[in-house]
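Aim 2 progress. For DUF6593 domain-containing protein, the working sequence is reproduced below.
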Amino acid sequence: MSKLQLYLVNNDPSATVLMSPSGQPLYAIRTRKASTSSSKSSTSTSGSSSPGSQLSLLDTLEQTGTTTIYRLDNLSPSRGQVETEVGIITPHALHKGASAISLCLEGDYHIDIGTQRVQVVEEGKSECLTPVTDSEPDVRALEVHENSWAFVGPDSRKYVWQMFVQSPILVLADSTMMPLARYRRAKLGIVSRSRKASLEIMPEGLAVMDMIVVTFVAFMKYRVPAELHSLQMLANETTRHHSFFSGETVHEAEAEPPVLKAVPAQASS
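Predicted structure tokens for this construct:
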């Protein structure tokens, strides 16, 4: 069984379509815009931020709406494409008794960031949300650190999304630290071949692909700086590093470009 590349039609992981190398759409991600009142409120509370400055996690929570992830299945030529909702990412107001972010996977499996009460702590210059210990019995709390998210999946195994050489990767949080997925940024191809941004899923991750896609979108939306979503444009910079996935030295500029059919994402409701 080989790994699977899911290519992003748009570089924004919260509003895109994930496609196979042959151009078949496999997932649709749609984000509903936040209400006008919420936007105004967040603007007034972050007045000290200068134009163009990066939003903090707390500002981002206030200015973004609910994101829904759909799996796109082609059942038959007569029935066409069927959408199955596999995840919902919901930001909440930061007040006592509420979660900051909720992930709801297919089968009503919930993962909350910050349960019962939200405690805001500082790590260096960054803000993060940590779950308190006295959460409700049936709520799975996601452990949040500056550059990683640890959570327990529907299969009762623990996973970690973390940054590795400016790229998000998902690994099993056990003695094996088995890599399951990674994100690769788009490249313009000034001195090398261009490529679309993609989510690469290892063979070991295919059985939990829906969970990987939903948690990937949430991690990219709330923990990864926006500039790392965009194109890698430095013409003279070829990233050379030891691959966590293959044990071999990787030259990022040598990556093959994907073959895609342009399919626009549907308008959010």
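The helical segments are 36-45, 57-63, 209-222. This observation will guide construct design in the next reporting period.
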